[in-house]
Design brief:
By secondary structure, the chain is α/β, with parallel strands linked by helices. The chain is built from 11 helices and 19 strands. It has an 8-stranded parallel β-sheet with strand order 8-7-6-5-4-3-2-9. Helix 1 packs across helix 3. The radius of gyration is 24 Å and the shape is elongated. The chain binds pyridoxal-5'-phosphate. Pyridoxal-5'-phosphate binds next to helix 9 and strand 9.
Length: 370
C-alpha cells in the first residue's frame, strides 16, 4: 500500500470489504457477477476497484465507455469486459482483439460493427440490449426475436449475451418492475423456442439482484452493492455488506483568528469570537462540494467547515477540538472512532444522490488500496 504520510487528501479503499461484498452477492444470488466498475469504479478508482472485485472472485467486469476498458487492458486485466454504453465503430477491431464485449442496441450499430469485423476477418462478441422501460438504449421486447434473428445472420458478430436494465428496481416499484421482468422473460422463452437464446442473459443491477430473484437469470450486474453502498433508502443492503471507501484529508494550518474576521471568499462566515481556525488540504476540485453546512471528523469529533470551500482548500472551526494540531488527519467520509460520516449523509448535505457523491470524487485524489 502506498503511504499517505505525504498526501493532502486521499481515499483508502478496503479490498477486504469489497471481497466480502462480492462473496455476499454470490451467495445471495447463486449466479456469477458482472462487477460494474464504471465512473472510475464508482469513485473508488478504476484499477483499484477492478483489482478488489477480481480478488473477490468476480469473473466479469463492466464499464460504461470503451476508454475505461482500454485502461483496464493496459493494466494487464484479462477477464471479459462488457461495455454498457455506446462504442464508436472505430473501436471494433480493438474490441474484437481484446475480448471486449460491445452493446448492440439497434440494427444500425449492429450492421456497422458487423461490416468492420467481417472486413478485418474478426468476430466481435456482442450483447444485445433490450429496452423494457428505461427508454434509453435498446430494442423493444416485441422486436427482440426478429432483432436476434438478424444479428445471428451477421457473421462478423457473435451474439454472446442478451440484457436489459430496470429503471425502477431501486425505487421498489414492484408492479412496474415485475411486469418488466415478465416482458424480458417472455422474450427469453421465445428465443429458446427459436434456438436463438444467447448463452448469457443478464438484467439485474444491485437493487434487482437483491430484491427481485426472478431477475437474476445467468449473471447479475452489480455496481453500488459491490462497494458496500445501498441502491436507495427503500432498497437497503442486507446484513454484512461493508462500505469500502474512507476519504481523508490533512490539517495543514491551525491559527486563532480574531472576532469579526471574515473567513474565505465573499465573507460567508464571520468569526463570532476569537476562534481556532484550521485549514484542510481539500477543495471542490477534489469533489468536496461547496454546500453548507459541511462537517468532518477529527479525533472522532465533528468539526464544522466554515466559509466557502475553495478549489483546493477549506477552513474549519476547531474550538471544540483543542487537541487538533497541524498534521492531524480529518475523515471526510467514513468512520473515525465512534462516529461516521457515511456517503448518505454527504449526499443529503449536498442535495445529490449517493451514486453521485462517490463517483464525483475527483480523479486527482490518490486511491490507496489496502
Ligand atoms: C450502472 C449500471 C449497472 C449497475 O447498477 P447498480 O445500481 O450500481 O448496481 C447495471 N447495469 C447498467 C446498464 C448500468 O448502467
Amino acid at each position: 500500500m502506498m503511504d499517505s504520510t505525504n498526501l493532502s487528501t486521499w481515499l483508502e479503499i478496503d479490498c477486504q470489504a469489497i471481497k466480502t461484498n462480492v462473496n455476499l452477492l454470490h451467495s445471495i444470488t447463486s449466479v456469477p457477477l458482472i462487477a460494474v466498475v464504471k465512473a472510475n469504479g464508482y469513485g473508488h478508482g478504476l484499477f483499484e476497484a477492478a483489482t478488489a472485485v477480481l480478488a473477490g472472485g468476480s469473473e466479469w467486469l463492466a464499464v460504461s465507455r470503451i476508454e475505461e476498458a482500454v485502461l483496464l487492458r493496459e493494466k494487464g486485466i484479462r477477464v471479459p469486459i462488457l461495455v454498457l454504453g455506446f462504442t464508436s465503430p472505430g473501436f471494433v477491431q480493438y474490441a474484437a482483439r481484446e475480448e471486449i464485449r460491445l452493446n448492440v442496441y439497434g440494427m444500425e450499430i449492429a450492421e456497422a460493427y458487423h461490416r468492420i469485423a467481417l472486413e478485418a476477418n474478426l468476430k466481435l462478441k456482442v450483447h444485445a440490449k433490450i429496452n423494457v422501460g428505461m427508454n434509453r438504449l435498446g430494442v423493444s421486447p416485441l422486436e427482440g426475436l426478429e432483432f436476434l434473428r438478424q444479428l445471428n445472420s451477421f457473421h462478423g458478430l457473435e451474439v454472446e449475451g442478451l440484457f436489459t436494465h430496470f429503471p425502477q428496481a431501486a425505487s421498489r416499484n414492484d408492479g412496474v418492475t415485475l411486469q418488466q421482468i415478465d416482458q424480458f422473460t417472455h422474450l427469453v422463452s421465445e428465443l429458446e423456442q427459436a434456438q436463438l437464446r444467447p448463452a448469457l442473459i443478464h438484467a439485474a443491477n444491485s437493487a434487482a439482484a437483491l430484491y427481485y430473484p426472478s431477475a437474476r437469470f445467468d449473471l447479475v450486474r452489480c455496481g453500488i452493492a459491490v462497494f458496500g453502498l445501498p441502491p436507495s433508502k427503500v432498497a437497503p443492503l442486507l446484513e454484512g455488506f461493508q462500505p469500502a471507501l474512507t476519504w481523508k484529508s490533512r490539517l495543514v494550518s491551525v491559527k486563532t483568528v480574531q472576532q469579526g474576521e471574515a473567513i474565505s471568499y465573499n465573507a460567508h462566515y464571520v468569526t463570532r469570537k476569537p476562534e481556532r481556525i484550521g485549514v484542510l488540504a481539500l477543495g471542490y476540485a477534489d469533489g468536496y462540494r461547496r454546500y453548507q453546512p459541511n462537517q468532518v471528523l477529527i479525533h472522532g469529533k465533528r468539526a464544522e467547515i466554515v466559509g466557502s470551500v475553495c478549489m483546493d482548500q477549506c477552513m474549519l472551526r476547531l474550538d471544540d477540538i483543542p487537541e487538533a494540531v497541524v498534521g492531524d488527519i480529518a475523515v471526510v467520509l467514513g468512520k473515525d472512532q465512534d462516529d461516521c460520516i457515511d456517503a448518505d449523509e454527504l449526499a443529503t448535505r449536498w442535495h445529490i444522490n449517493l451514486y453521485d457523491t462517490v463517483c464525483s470524487i475527483a480523479a486527482r485524489v490518490p486511491r490507496l488500496l489496502s
